[in-house]
């Protein structure tokens, strides 16, 4: 839990009182590789913080093809945030791509605390600004303007993550077939 609290404090300083209350809603959970944390169609009830392992955030189309939107590594927060906010079933799946240890906490309890704890509200604002505005905006532009090759090179920059992904995860994330990914790699002489 210390990693989670440390990470939260990088966004906004939490009071000792808020920290103690948060500890009461945190639960350590383990999931095996390929186990779903959340399935599309289910209500998203939790926020997650990854202590160990790798999560994939994806959608499936009518043909069963998987499109990965995001990967979450250690010390990352993950949730089907839009589903939580709108109180609707999630349209995304969250799956363990490796064995995972995470801390889950009730979205309902957390959101109630955000309403009453100013320091936690400051954390939430700072987190959303950094991760849902600053980080997300370039990704949206990349999808519209950059080729699969350029997006591959961008993903390749994060070698720690890149080496943990299977080729079909990378192809799905880029929106290409495994054959197209092979061509990109051959072109780059990998």
Automatic annotation (TrEMBL):
It holds the Pfam family cNMP_binding. Coiled coil: none annotated. One of its GO terms (molecular function) is DNA-binding transcription factor activity. It comes from the Bacteria. GO terms for cellular component: cytosol. Residues 10-114 form the Cyclic nucleotide-binding domain. SMART domains: cNMP. PANTHER family: CRP FAMILY TRANSCRIPTIONAL REGULATORY PROTEIN, REGULATORY PROTEIN YEIL. This is Cyclic nucleotide-binding protein. It comes from Sphingobacterium siyangense.
